[in-house]
Amino acid sequence: MKKLFFVSVVLLSIISTVNAQEISNHAIGIRFGDNDGFGGEISYQRKLSEVNRLEVDLGYKNDKNFNAFKLTGVYQWIWKIDEGFNWYAGFGAGIGSWSYNDGFVSDKDDGLFINIDGNIGIEYNFEAPILISLDFRPEIGIIGDYGKDTDLDLALSIRYQFN
Fold first, then answer.
1. Which of 27, 88, 105, 127 is least surrounded by Cβ atoms within 10 Å, i.e. has the fewest?
2. Distance of alpha carbon 51 from alpha carbon 144, whole angstroms
3. How much is the average pLDDT of 97-126?
4. Could you tell me the CA-to-CA distances from 134 to 33, 58, 159 in Å, in that order?
């Protein structure tokens, strides 16, 4: 029942925003995903041309035994599907650092990591200055043990758009 309600609300929102605006020069918000243990990220998008943009995401994690940050940049191409709907794809890289503060010797390494990223997603640009998107970002570790394996990150993003 909850799924049916959610789908109904989304469809009603889509139908009521027939004249959605074009993507703004800037958008800032939150990207909610797994992000290899980081969780949510602060996300910023900058329009570079009518068909390209740069997305920069900052993730930070700090708890009793572990702290880390990750900065990711992705260059994206944007294709219009329908009024307000776009899909996009791109590539980029991430850099970060992590450390363990668990108080005992660990077989895990601390330090710097670098990864390469792909990105594909779909977004809807509401008439209000809100952009919502769902994307998939595979990340392949190049340097460092933290991002050593391939990470498959699925995320929902909500951003406020401005000029």
1. 105
2. 34
3. 81
4. 10, 17, 12
Q: What is the dihedral of CA 123, 124, 130, 131, to 10 degrees?
A: 10
Output the CA–CA distances (angstroms, integers) from residue 163 to 50, 92, 129, 130, in the order listed. 14, 24, 10, 13
DSSP structure class, residue 36: G
Cα 26 to Cα 35: distance, rounded to the nearest angstrom: 23
Mean pLDDT of 22-29: 89
What does the pLDDT read at residue 64? 76
User: What residues are paired with 40 via a beta bridge?
Assistant: none
CB 43, CB 30: distance < 8 Å: yes
Domains with residue ranges and CATH for the chain: 26-162 (2.40.160.20)
0.85 surpassed by pTM: no
Give 12-20 contacts, CB < 8 A, sequence gap 24+: 13/126, 14/84, 14/124, 17/84, 17/126, 17/127, 17/128, 18/83, 19/83, 19/127, 20/83, 20/84, 20/124, 20/125, 20/126, 20/127
